[in-house]
Amino acid sequence: MTREYPDRPFVGIGVIVWCGGRVLLVRRARPPRQGQWSLPGGLQELGEGVLEAARREVREETGLDIDILGIADVVDLIERNDAGRVRYHSYDDCPAGFCCPVILKAGKSSKTQPFFNVS
To answer: What are all long-range contacts of 47-50, with beta carbons under 8 Å and residues at least 24 apart?
Structure first.
């Protein structure tokens, strides 16, 4: 099944990565929301726990290994086309993690990953 116009929701992971009072965002390289800033993350794989998926996705997209602090939120993301048909539908678990200052690398589904100040 494709992610676009699915017949069921997908389980997504969006990870809040904190470092020195700043949060990590990635610019998405692929749809949905291509080119927009987002939390690092992706789809949970079959047989994979939420926290395991969070660590894997952050590592794949940024090269960071993080410590998970807990689940911050669960968000449903539903995007409809002009006719009202569901184009994308996922439920995103949002684990909160922490990392030490490191050099980041662009991953397969992100272009850049700066840390932003949180106020």
So the answer is: 50/13, 50/93, 50/95
Provide CB contacts within 8 A for 70, sequence distance 6+: 95, 96
**Residue 76 falls inside a structural domain:** yes
Task: Supply the CATH number for residue 75's domain.
Answer: 3.90.79.10
Residue 109 lies in a domain: no
DSSP of 25-67: -EEBSSSSSTTSEE-SEEEPPTT--HHHHHHHHHHHHHS---E
Q: What is the pLDDT of residues 76-119, one digit of tens each?
A: 888 999 999 999 888 766 666 655 444 444 455 555 567 777 76
Which tokens in the block code for residue 15? Answer: 């990870």
The whole model's pTM is what? 0.72
CB atoms within 10 A of CB 113: 21
Mean pLDDT, rounded, for 38-67: 89
Which tens digit of pLDDT belongs to each residue from 23-43?
A: 888 888 887 778 888 888 888
Do 37 and 50 contact (CB within 8 A), yes or no?
no
